[in-house]
Amino acid sequence: MNSVYIVKGNIIYTSRPAEFAVIPNGYMIVRDGRIAYCGESIPSEFESYPVEDYGDNLIIPGFVDTHAHAPQFCNRGLGMDKELLPWLETYTFPEEAKFSDLDYAKTVYSAFVNELWRYGTTRSILFGTIHKESTLLLMRLLSEAGLSAFVGKVNMDRNSPDYLIEDTDQSLHDTRVWLEEARQFGPLVRPIVTPRFVPSCTSRLMSGLGDLAVEYNVPIQSHLSENHGEIEWVHSLHPDSSSYTDVYCEHRLMGTVPTVMAHCIHLSDEEMERMHETKTMVAHCPYSNVNLSSGIAPIRKLLNHGISIALGSDISGGHDISMAKVLTEAVGLSKMKWAEVDASYASLTLPEAFYMATKGGGQFFGDVGSFETGYEFDALVIDDHELFDPNERSIEERLERWLYIGDDRHIVGRYVAGKLLDEPPMAM
Ligand code: GUN
Ligand code: FE
């Protein structure tokens, strides 16, 4: 793509968590998919280029979902009566087993990709299943849609039902073959090494995956410290390790390549230090934490430890794919932490949560999630005029209202890396 165009509208984004940057009736110059300029008027050297004029609409960065399970898409809103471990056995594992069938995978994954597009999740970090063919299919559908994602073939070789478990050598072999085949998708859709969580991976598998991540220079994702029963189980499986976090470190699954860990609700201070030292990002999943009664992640404390926080829908522990709703829920849950648990945990502000849902998670992809010069142009155009309000509102207030009471019907344009995306097709 060798192109320059200009986008005009009410621009609002967070280059830092403390506040929104707002440019009413502003302009962005997009050159070869990246922002060359963002400001109040068109610099004279760009005056001759075409302008996409979005009038009074809002223009915000695309959303980044840093933790979702694509194969759990049909389980949204089901099985919210259990905690993590029985929930996995009763609802999640039987559903994921169906993805050995490529026809089933195509039906569900095309609907999932359509929904990501619909809700403006331009970048995502996804779990597939243990099945490499259906995971490659998910990558192909994302790529065809023009969406950007890290996608993981999941690894599981212990404590798993016989219908959803791998032999250790086969798991490592399949992961290598999948990493080779995943090269075909290019820079927007990339693989991520994905041990499900410590209880479902033997030491030999975890070490082998740590080595593969370094050999192929791909990032790693997993789950960490989500539920008290899970944490006790990890301690009994690894009595010589000082913590759940240490188990990952000992198997080179943290501290080598970029890593994102979902949840991190019950970490000790020492574990938070390890997270900071190893530059591990946290995917905070507020809906999931509520639905599975997992707890309220101490986000303020993690931030104070210098840990990067991003947000995740955790479909289907979380039931809502909308990152607008996930980010408002993160604000709400942080208020409950402050009110009910510990008043020293200042609740999250809206710009802080918006930052997490855009630039915070976007950092995992490079220069993504902001409208600063050099950033990839991922953007949503929001027409909020149907949200009835006879009052004059600021751009910030209009964004706040849309985040809380708006939905996908108000997203009228979606750009990824400079490309305006059409609606992806659903499989028949
Ligand atoms: N821990 C291990 N697997 C899962 C999963 O599928 N969802 C959640 N929320 N936690 C997990
Ligand atoms: Fe998860």
UniProtKB/TrEMBL annotation:
> Which GO biological-process labels does this protein carry?
guanine catabolic process
Has keyword Metal-binding?
A: yes
Keyword annotations for this protein, in alphabetical order, are: Hydrolase, Metal-binding, Zinc
Give any GO molecular function from the UniProt entry.
guanine deaminase activity
For this chain's record, the cofactor binding note is: Binds 1 zinc ion per subunit.
**Keyword Hydrolase attached:** yes
Under which EC number(s) is this enzyme classified?
A: 3.5.4.3
Reaction(s) this enzyme catalyzes, per UniProt: guanine + H2O + H(+) = xanthine + NH4(+)
Listed cofactors: Zn(2+)
Q: In which pathway does it act?
A: Purine metabolism; guanine degradation; xanthine from guanine: step 1/1
Function, as annotated: Catalyzes the hydrolytic deamination of guanine, producing xanthine and ammonia.
NCBIfam families the UniProt entry points to: guan_deamin
Q: What is this protein called?
A: Guanine deaminase
**Organism, as annotated:** Veillonella dispar DORA_11
